Amino acid sequence: MKEKTYQFSYTVVEDSSALEQNDANLLEEARALTSVAYAPYSRFHVASVAQLANGQIVKGTNQENASFPVGICAERSLLAAIGTLYPNEIIETMAITYQPQEGESNRPISPCGMCRQSLVEYENRVKHPIRLVLAGSEGPVYIIETAKDLLPFAFSEGDLK
Ligand code: THU
After folding, report:
1. Does the beta carbon of 33 sit less than 6 angstroms from any atom of ligand 1?
2. What is the pTM of this model?
3. Residue 74 C-alpha to ligand 1 middle, in angstroms?
4. How far is CA 113 from the centre of its chain?
5. Mean pLDDT of 93-113
6. What strands lie across the sheet with 11-13, from one edge to the other?
7. What is the mean pLDDT of residues 105-123?
8. Domain membership flag for residue 32
9. Atom 9, ligand 1: which residue's CA is nearest?
10. What is the mean pLDDT of residues 123-136?
11. Catalytic annotation on 75?
């Protein structure tokens, strides 16, 4: 019998003013974008903005539906857009933020399980990590070097063989 440990490192930045310029810009764009999320049911607006290796910036927001499970998260709407507009382009960094219609946004949120699976699929597809910048509208920012760190034991293509 053997006990194993899973651990990963991430960076905590005290607030967005201490970020490097590229990350600060991306997060600023994401914060502004929360206003166009379509979230009339949860009233929880999420936005994500990606910096691609080709220099393009692509944006996504959560898009809900009266039939609740039909709704899609900001991260997966963004990945779908990137996969369509710039197939196989590397995503260097993705900023993710949120703004509830009522309540605070002063700490990071991290992608839901389904989005983690989609992020890992994209990393495997283009063989490049996606750097995540996670924050609220204010407060600390988490930087995670690869989405894989958030999904240990991920199911992936190799498991189908
Ligand atoms: N949501 C996202 O868009 N991304 C996340 O990482 C967490 C949750 C959305 C789904 C739903 O529209 C709303 O936030 C509340 O769960």
Report:
1. no
2. 0.97
3. 7
4. 11
5. 98
6. 11-13, 141-144, 131-135, 91-100, 44-52, 57-61
7. 98
8. yes
9. 73
10. 98
11. yes
